[in-house]
Amino acid sequence: MQSRSSERIVRSRRVALGGVTEPLRVAPANLHLSGARITAISDYDAPLPPADGARVGVGVGVVVEDHGDDLITPSFVDAHVHAPMLYFRGLGSALAMRGNVVEDVFYAVESKLEPSDVRAFARLGAYELLRVGTGTIWEHYYFGEELAAGLRDAGITGFVAPTLQDRSGPGVPWLEQQLDATIALCEDDDLAEAGLFAALGPHATDTVSAALWQRIATLAQERGLPVHAHVAQSYEEVERAWQTAGCSPVEMLQRSGALDASHRFLMVHGIFLSDADLGRLDPARHTLGFCPFSQLQFSVPADVLRWTARGLPWVVATDCAACNDGMDVQKELRFVSGARALRAAHSSEREAFARAGSLTAAAELERTRQAAYDLDHGWSDPAALLSRVWSIPGVLDPRWPAGALEAGRVANYCVWDIEDPAFWPGIDPLRALAMGSPLPALRRHVVAGRPVGRDGDVRTLGEQAEVREAAREARRRLELLLARLN
User: What are the chain's domains?
Assistant: First the structure.
């Protein structure tokens, strides 16, 4: 990362504006930046300080970046990620996905982790995230202070939730240490200056006791911290809830007081949420997290159509490289767009056609498909798709407002080459960004006002000496971890 100038104007004839209180649109604009924040948006034709150079120059105390016809957008927000878990990429087997991969594979390896491992893996994972245009993350993993240090090394921003477990899982021996780490992160002003903030990270309803949930709810109230947890993510979690409490995981949370407290709660996966469970959630305080490609591997996709019908806010995230094989949140949007087609794909009309194969049955299936389209066609709208990785997760916590280009927000933005074949012909750049494969066109990525890559070119990130050294250090740590695993 390079140092950021205190006063800058970033401008283009194509800037993605709105998306919060106004509709998302692409228009000419000037972004006025001071440090890590956007201070104002001005008209593209407004007079500017004189600058040397056609594209980037220094005016009277102001740096002007003129990006011509390139598209400027907010950076992506990945609302649930385990950045250090990229070390699992290639370690597991597809066969492990038949069972509970978290318990059958991940726990065995994670029980041998050391704090230095987490810092090394988190650093390299953060570089991967930066490279794909993600500037803010909601991170959840073990050894919180080393986790935050690794993310800070790379320069990514977001919210760090040290994993808390007291009933089962690798984190049980580290519980008090990680609670202390959460408080330390919360009180670290230097970390906040770098754009990293604490969140409370209970792992899941089957690995966290009712007593610990109550303790977490109290701490959330006292410290004003959000809670970030896995909820109803596996059959085993549901089974244990019914065996121990005679109710669903969500009702367990309600009984413990964790659900009804006034803190903000990010509840991820929600694969096994009933209508009654959804009725217990409050749209003003509870946000659901959907990780499409991860869920396709380790379970089944959550019923986000039902979430939407209930008026519950939800965001899109990647989870981790261990069960997704990548951490590119933009690529998840195509599956989200197609979720409406699942109504017809798994309908009784589809079954009837498979049995009969007749023209009449085919016509019934086509009518079902068209009815599903009429009901949910808004899912293909680029603004709606992009809101799941921009504006909605960008305001999950007011300490670091991201996901939109407007005054007061964080200066996290991407610059895309609109003439790149990945965008061409550029008639609808927002659709290309939501539904295409735009990564080759990512020219520049700025996070908290700091450019990523050599000379601000994100494409050079992998060539930087510190990134190469981070990869070597992660490799050394992985070899030691594998040796401990024998």
Answer: 7-75+403-452 (2.30.40.10), 76-342 (3.20.20.140)
Cβ-based neighbour number of residue 408 at 10 Å: 10
CA distance 69 to 419: 9
Band (pLDDT 50/70/90 cuts) for residue 305 is: confident
* Per-residue CA distances from 155 to 1, 201, 318 (Å): 7, 22, 19
Crossing angle for the helix pair 144-154 and 115-131, nearest 10 degrees? 40
Give me the chain's average pLDDT, please. 91
86-90, 218-222, 347-351, 371-375: which range is least confident on average? 371-375
Angle between helix axes 210-223 and 175-186 (nearest 10 degrees) is 10
Helices (H), 66-205: 101, 107-110, 115-131, 144-154, 175-186, 189-193
* Cβ count near 319 (within 10 Å): 29
pTM flag (> 0.70) = yes
Give start and end residues of each alpha helix (H) in 23-163: 101, 107-110, 115-131, 144-154
> Length of the chain, please?
486
